[in-house]
Amino acid sequence: GKSGHEHYMLKEIYEQPTAIRKCLRERVSEMEESITVEELSDLGTLERDGPVQFVACGTSFHAALYGARLLREQGIHAQCFRASEYAAESVPIHSGTVVIGVTQSGETADTMSALRTANKAGASTVTVTNVVGSSAARECDHVMYIRAGPEIGVAATKTFASQQVALTLLTSALTGSASLDTIKRLRTLPDQLQRVLDESTAREIAMEYVDADSYFFIGRGYNAPVALEGALKMKEITYKHAEGFAGGELKHGPLALVTEASPVFAMATGENHVEKMLGNINEVEARGAPVVAVTDSPATLSQYADHVLEVPDAGPRLTSVLANVQLQLVSYWVANELGRSIDKPRHLAKSVTVE
Ligand code: M6R
């Protein structure tokens, strides 16, 4: 059942602290200052600097963008491809290449076809999936489970958070880069997420902007994929126009769309990005757009933004997991107010088994 929630989507949003705890269980040891992913132990023997290519669709693609960034930060040459375009892009694949398919269901046809292409070309294949025994799990040389539990709502929510956490673990497993700081931050994340759920004012903000023409989402660094994800969720369940951009791209075109009727959700977390984001906020405010800052620096941002959705500081990478939860809640409450079919949006299926 929906445990008292009106929709599975809301139930699943609230299940995120538990989903993350399950993903971490027995993989993170504070005592030994280590992260181990049992399922990937034999991947450790692979050539570390062989390129890593992520293939995925939709929300899983956004998680893959996050994962590729994590690996690049550790010096690994990691790229990200939309699974539906992977074969057509003539990406060079050789025996040292590791191809990672990120797929909640493990059944997405585009992702399966990219993984088959990779297998045929001699790459080592890995899937990061939620479903035990799924097609992707059977196709790939290695399987890492995200352990989010079943997700019924068509909109992916808890599985995205679990993918972000799983890819953090995968990065440590592949690079041996588990720092005590990362371990501590992972351990605290479920409680911080619970705090976001308990204290969020996303519902009030949703009410304020339910009549908007368009919604824009901007973020930089690890928040850039979250901006894309925020927009996808908004489109999917509200049927309203929404777009996500890396903050720096605004002035290269999208700014022309910004008006008083297009609220901008600006993710500003971590010192480096807060400063640059303030520039982006000025750009959109000058065009009359209302700004909602999603931030771990509420004191600073409340001077610039119309509203603030606060998130705790979870470090330079994981704070984006929390920022995303605020956006999930905004989309949910907008869709709820509009009376949409939230768990089964029109035209969409939970797993897309045609190419
Ligand atoms: O099962 P998968 O993760 O492979 O699914 C990929 C996409 O179809 C999926 O993430 C889709 O974008 C979601 N409905 C978004 O909420």
Automatic annotation (TrEMBL):
Name any one GO molecular function: carbohydrate derivative binding
Q: Which residues form the active site?
A: K350 (for fru-6p isomerization activity)
Quaternary structure note = Homodimer.
Question: Domain SIS: where?
Answer: 36-183, 205-345
Role of this protein? Catalyzes the first step in hexosamine metabolism, converting fructose-6P into glucosamine-6P using glutamine as a nitrogen source.
Repeat among keywords: yes
Catalysed reaction(s) here are: D-fructose 6-phosphate + L-glutamine = D-glucosamine 6-phosphate + L-glutamate
- Keyword Disulfide bond found: no
- What GO cellular-component annotations does this UniProt entry give? cytoplasm
Q: Show the stretches that span the lipid bilayer.
A: none
**What EC identifiers does the entry list?**
2.6.1.16
| Organism in which the protein naturally occurs | Natrialba swarupiae
The kind of enzyme this is, by top-level EC class, is transferase
* Keywords carried by this UniProt record: Aminotransferase, Cytoplasm, Glutamine amidotransferase, Repeat, Transferase
Q: What is its main location?
A: cytoplasm
Protein name listed in UniProt: Glutamine--fructose-6-phosphate aminotransferase [isomerizing]
Query: Span within the entire protein?
Result: 245 to 599 of 599
Q: Which ranges form a coiled coil?
A: none
The entry's localization annotation reads: Cytoplasm
Task: Give GO BP annotations, semicolon-separated.
Answer: carbohydrate metabolic process; fructose 6-phosphate metabolic process; protein N-linked glycosylation; UDP-N-acetylglucosamine metabolic process
